Protein: 3-isopropylmalate dehydrogenase
Amino acid sequence: MDVMVLNGDGIGPEIMNAAIKIINKLHENFGLNINPVEYDIGAVTLDNGKWDLDHILDEARKYKAILKAPMGDPKLRNTGGTEKALDVILSLRFDLDLYANVRPVRLLPGVESPLKSYNNPDSINYTIIRENSEGLYSSHFGGLVLRDELAIDNQTITRKGTERISRFAFELAKKTKGSPKDGKKSVVCVDKSNVLRSFAFFRKIFSEVSSRYDEIVAKYMYADAMAQHMIIRPDELNVIVTENMFGDVLSDLGAATVGGLGFAYSGNISDNMGMFEPVHGSAPDIAGRNIANPTAMIMSTSMMLDWLGFGKFSKIIEDSLFNAIRSGVRTPDMGGNATTSYFTESILKNM
Ligand code: ATP
Ligand code: MG
Structure:
């Protein structure tokens, strides 16, 4: 099966190289039938006109799964390359209707959490479901600035969008082992329904959907309270569902509790297509130095394989990655001095 691979900018090509080596090894040693088709798409190639948005969307529609590296280059902020890259990222999510952004917050074995009381691999393990097709982000294509005096962005919350994301969250909760604390399966609806009507509507629809899932506890929390909860009692969490912008912010917070952005991976999923990518950006400050942590890219690959029905192979990736980390191989962001290539080689050796 062909999979579209977007190499991106900055550390993108370096960490994607790690993911591809792992896919190829799974193919050679274990017969995984995945063929990565690489596309040199990022702010740089958008800036020089090699690619444009429609062309990319046409290509993307040929695939069931996309593996995407981070895009963006601060040097191209003035020429427009980075803005075009953001358009591409958001258009892939909006136009392909990848409505569920699934962001696991999981403390991997061998990784240290800054939360001292939760420093064991099983104590932080929950998933943030970020609504990916509407909310405040949809205003990216239609915000308004009036006479340099006033700016307006609109938040869109629809019944259809909220129903499907709520359903997605409950279906996911069904498949999990529940919260690390007591194994209870729950979905928390996170909003600011006390302040905005659109959020009160979001909460109402979520509540309607929840009545169809008796076996899963439905909970409600304001976004500010959730930010605190994720630090004080992360072990009580199982699945969180929230609007686009809150999901963006809370998932960076969650990432910090499990070792940093290098460990935050994600999937953008529709009913028939998926795009998998690290949560972090192109990290221009460390690009080209072979020191980026490829874990989020590798875990995104694992998530993609699992979603495609190759769960056996994603287990091989995770076991060998965890073994490498447990044996003490650490990139600089983890406090070590391993290069990206050495880190990758250690995983390959463990496979
Ligand atoms: P974006 O606007 O694309 O989200 P950002 O401004 O949030 O980008 P990132 O590129 O995510 O920034 O980087 C934030 C910080 O985290 C940087 O200091 C970067 O070097 C570091 N960082 C991000 N990803 C990694 C990684 N995989 N390995 C090591 N450090 C990383
Ligand atoms: Mg960011």
User: Anything to note?
Assistant: Residues 107-260 form a domain with the Isopropylmalate Dehydrogenase fold (CATH 3.40.718.10).
